[in-house]
Amino acid sequence: MTELSPSEIEYVRYGGEHHLPLIMGLVDRELSEPYSIFTYRYFVYLWPNLTFLAFHGEKCVGTVVCKMGHHRNISRGYIGMLVVIEPYRGRGIATELVTRSIRVMMESGCQEVTLEAEVTNKGALALYGRLGFIRAKRLFRYYLNGVDAFRLKLLFPKCNPMLLATSNKNGGDDQPVNRL
Amino acid sequence: MANHQGGGGGGAGGLIGHASLPPPIPAGDQTVWADAGPLIVASCSELQDGELIHAENFSLFAAMSALEIMDPKMDSGIENSGYHSIEEAIENNIAPVPLSLDSTLDVQCILDVIDHLFSCEATWHKGHSLAQTVFSCIYLLRIERTSPHSLLHSYCRIMRAICNALVSVVSDARTNEEEDLFAMAYALPLKGEGDEKCLSILNSVEETISRQLRACRAQSSRKKSLEDIEPLQRNPDLEEGYCRALLCRLRFRKHYFHVFMCMRKPHGKGLELARKHVALCLSELSYMSKSLEFLRSLPYGSFQDDIESSTTASGCKPIGFDASLNSTLSAPGPPRATHILSWKKAVGYFQKLLHDLDFVCSFNMEPVLEDVLHYVVQFQKLQPDLVARTHLQILLVQDGKLCGKDSFHDVISRALALPELTADKEFQKNEFIVQLGQLIVSLLKILCTNIAWQRRKLGKILQDWGVLSLQLEMAFKREFGDRLNVMVDENMCMKVSRRLLIWTDEHTYWIASRFLTLGFELELYSPNEYCMVYWYMYVVLMRLMEKMQMRIAINSETCKRKREKKKDHAKDPARDGSLSSSSLLIHCYICLCEGLAMMLAALHNESKAFQMRSPFNGEEERFSQHFDLLQKAHVPDHVSYYLFKESTVHARISGVVKHNYFREAQRITSSLKGSFAGDPNRMLELQQLEQVAEHNRIALNVINQVGADDPSLRVSFEFTHHPHFAMAVVKRS
C-alpha cells in the first residue's frame, strides 16, 4: 500500500460530463450490481451536488453517488454507490466522500439518509455504523447474487442546536478519520 | 411505410437472415408502424454527450430500467448455448432418447440426469427460479419425447407432479412474499394429463429393476433365477451396482411424493404416515450417498470441472440440460446468477428439509393456542426453508380455522379459560372477538414467514394489537370502571371483558418481545446498541410477565371457586403449571436483560472504549429509530429515551455487581429444571441461559476488580451460548 497523507487526496464535487466515465469505470469494475449509463445520468443530472470524486493527483480513486427526495412526506437522502479502489482502501477516503455528501443532504433539509449494503460487507457496515447509521431492516436475498442486505438509516436530530453545532464542527475540520 | 401488415421489420431482416426471423408484430387498431430511422439519425448528429430524448412517459427515472443489450450483467440472453429454441437444441441431439444406444452408457446417463435434477431441485428450493433449475432439463420441457424410455419417462412425470404440487401449495399459502421466485412458473409445462398416475408408472419401473437386481444376485450366487429377466445393461459386473443406484433414487422420489400427499390431507390426518415416508426418504438418501463411490469409479463420459462440487454423484456432466433456453421465460430484468448446488450439498439440503418436515408432522393436532405459538417459535429455531414453513402454515390455518377444526372464536374462548362460551352466538359475533380472531390468523401466518420478513410484519401489526388493547381497555372502563384487578362479584360480561383485555395485552407484549429478540438473530444491532435493546426488552418483558401473572391469578381464582362449588376441575392443573413455568422463564429473561443493560450502561459510563461519537447524530436518534414501531403502537406506553437515560446514567459496575442479576437468573434456571424435565428443547435453553448467567457474573467480577476504566481491559460481547443473550468476554492486553 503506497504511503500517502490525507492531504494528498483531493475531493471534488461532480463537475460535468467529463467526470461521468471516471465514475462509471470505477463502479462497473468494483460493484456486482449492473447499472446502465441512464442510471448514472439520473443521479448526476438531478443531484450533481451530491456526487463527489476523490483524486490522487490525476487519478480518480474513489467516488460516491447519491440522490435525495421525498418518501412518505419525509425528506430523505439515498446513497446509491460508493467505491474506493483497492490500493487506496483503509485510509478513510470512503468515510470522507460519504461525510461530504451527507453534510450536503443535511444542509439541504433532509431528515434522514438511507442505503442498502450486503450483510457480508463488513467494511461498509463499520463505516456507516461509525457515522451513526443503524441497521433498520434485513432484506432477504436482496442482491442478484442471492446475498441478504441491510437497509441502513441515519436519522438527523430534529432540532437540537447543541448536536447540530457539534456535528458541523466535526464535519468541517480536516480530522484524521478511522481506518476501515 | 405506415400500416404495413407483416412488413414492419424494416431493414433488420437483412442482418440476421430470413430463416430465423420471428414473425412480425401486426399493427393494431390504435397503432401504426412508423419509420423512426430519420429521427434517430437526426438526433445522433445533434445530441451532445449526456443529452437524452425524453417525453412525458420517458424520463431519466424511467430510463434507469433500460437494459444494455449484450452486457452480460444485464442481458440474460447473451450467455447462451447458441440454440434459439428448444426444438433447435433437440435437432442438434442435446437431449437424445434413448440417452445412448449402449445400454450401460444409457443407464449411466440417466443416473446423471436424475442426480442433476436433484441438485437443480435443491437449488430451486434455495431461492432460484424453476426455469433456470429443474426446467433447464429438456426432457422435462418436452416430456412426450421420453415416452419410449419408461425409466426416464416415469422419473420426469413424477418430478413434474411434485414441482406442480409444491408450486400450488406455496402459491396458495402465500408464505413466500420475498421468495416469490419459487412459484414463478410462467409458460413452464408444469401440468400434464395423467400426472396423477405418475406413481403407478414409477412403481412398475421400480418393480422391473427390483426383479433385475434379484436376477443378477441369483446369478452371482450361482442360483438359478426363477424368471428369465433381461438385464438392465450389458456389463454383468456392474449390474448390481447400477440396479441399487437406480432403486434408491426411485424409492426416494416415491416416498418424497408420498410425504407431500400425506401432509396435505385435511386436519392432519396423514401426518403419522408422512413421518414414516420421511424416515424412508432419509434411508434412501443414505443409500444414494453410498452409491457415490461405485458411480465415481466408472470411467466414462466427461467430468465436471471441479469434481467435489459436481452436480452428479458420478462427477460427470449430465446431458439434456440447457438453462439458457428458458431465458425468454425468465423474469424480465437482469439475470440472477444461478449456481447449481453440488450433489453433496443437495443431499444435505434434502436431509435438513426432511428433518424439518418431520418436526412439522410431529405437531399435536389438538392444540392450545399458547402451545401453537411456542411450537412455531421452536420450529423457526431450526431455520427452516420455504417448503417446510409453508407446510406448517397450511397445517395451522386451514379454511379459516385452527388446524382446520376450531374456529378462532372457540380458540379464544378456550384461551380465556371460558369454554362455556364456545356455543355462545353473542360471543362469536362480538366485534372484538371477530377482530381478535383475524389478528390471531394473521399472526400465525406471519410467524411462518422467513424471519427477516417476519420481523417487519410483527413490527407493523403491533399497531393493530395496540389499538385493539386500547379499545378493550376503554370499553372495560366505560362499562365497569377501574376494577381491572377486582374479581369478586363479576358477572359473565365483566369476566369476559377482563380476561379478553388481559389476554390481548399479554400477547401484544409477546409480539413486541419477539420483534426485539429477532433483531439479534438478524444481526440488526451493533454492540453500542445492546444496552438500549436490553433495556427495552426488560421493559416489555416486565409488562408481559405482569399480564401472565394476572392470567395465572384469574385461573387459580376460578379453580378455587369451582372447588368450593364442588364442581369438576374444568381447569387443567398441568396447563396452569405450564403457565407458571413460562412466567418464571420470562422472569429469568428479565434478570438477564436487566443485568446486561446495566452492565453495558456501566461500561459506557465508566470506560471510554464504550462511548460512541457520531458526527451526524446521537444515541437518541438511534434509540428513536430502533424502537419507532413500538413507540408508535404505545407498547408499552410512557417509554422514552429520557426514561432510558434516567435508568442508566448512574449505572456503575460496583452497583451492578451488588444487584446480583445474574445470580438471580441462575437461581431461576435451577428451579425450572424440574418443570421442564420432559422437554429437551426447554432443557437445552435452560443450560444456555445458565452458561450466559455464569459467564457474565464472572466477567462482571473481573471488571469490578480491575476497574472498568483500566486501559488494558478489553470487553466484547458474543452470542456463544444463547442467540439473544450476549456473553461478556474480558481480555487484558
From TrEMBL, chain A:
<comment type="similarity">
    <text>Belongs to the acetyltransferase family. MAK3 subfamily.</text>
</comment>
<dbReference type="Pfam" id="PF00583">
    <property type="entry name" value="Acetyltransf_1"/>
</dbReference>
<dbReference type="InterPro" id="IPR000182">
    <property type="entry name" value="GNAT_dom"/>
</dbReference>
<dbReference type="InterPro" id="IPR016181">
    <property type="entry name" value="Acyl_CoA_acyltransferase"/>
</dbReference>
<keyword id="KW-0808">Transferase</keyword>
<protein>
    <submittedName>
        <fullName>(wild Malaysian banana) hypothetical protein</fullName>
    </submittedName>
</protein>
<dbReference type="InterPro" id="IPR044542">
    <property type="entry name" value="NAA30-like"/>
</dbReference>
<keyword id="KW-0012">Acyltransferase</keyword>
<dbReference type="GO" id="GO:0031417">
    <property type="term" value="C:NatC complex"/>
</dbReference>
<feature type="domain" description="N-acetyltransferase">
    <location>
        <begin position="10"/>
        <end position="157"/>
    </location>
</feature>
<dbReference type="GO" id="GO:0004596">
    <property type="term" value="F:protein-N-terminal amino-acid acetyltransferase activity"/>
</dbReference>
TrEMBL record, chain B:
<comment type="similarity">
    <text>Belongs to the MAK10 family.</text>
</comment>
<dbReference type="GO" id="GO:0031417">
    <property type="term" value="C:NatC complex"/>
</dbReference>
<protein>
    <recommendedName>
        <fullName>N-alpha-acetyltransferase 35, NatC auxiliary subunit</fullName>
    </recommendedName>
</protein>
<feature type="domain" description="NAA35-like TPR repeats">
    <location>
        <begin position="360"/>
        <end position="728"/>
    </location>
</feature>
<dbReference type="InterPro" id="IPR007244">
    <property type="entry name" value="Naa35_N"/>
</dbReference>
<feature type="region of interest" description="Disordered">
    <location>
        <begin position="1"/>
        <end position="20"/>
    </location>
</feature>
<feature type="compositionally biased region" description="Gly residues">
    <location>
        <begin position="1"/>
        <end position="16"/>
    </location>
</feature>
<dbReference type="InterPro" id="IPR057983">
    <property type="entry name" value="NAA35-like_N"/>
</dbReference>
<dbReference type="InterPro" id="IPR057982">
    <property type="entry name" value="TPR_NAA35"/>
</dbReference>
<dbReference type="Pfam" id="PF25789">
    <property type="entry name" value="TPR_NAA35"/>
</dbReference>
<dbReference type="Pfam" id="PF04112">
    <property type="entry name" value="Mak10"/>
</dbReference>
<keyword id="KW-0963">Cytoplasm</keyword>
<feature type="domain" description="NAA35-like N-terminal">
    <location>
        <begin position="50"/>
        <end position="188"/>
    </location>
</feature>
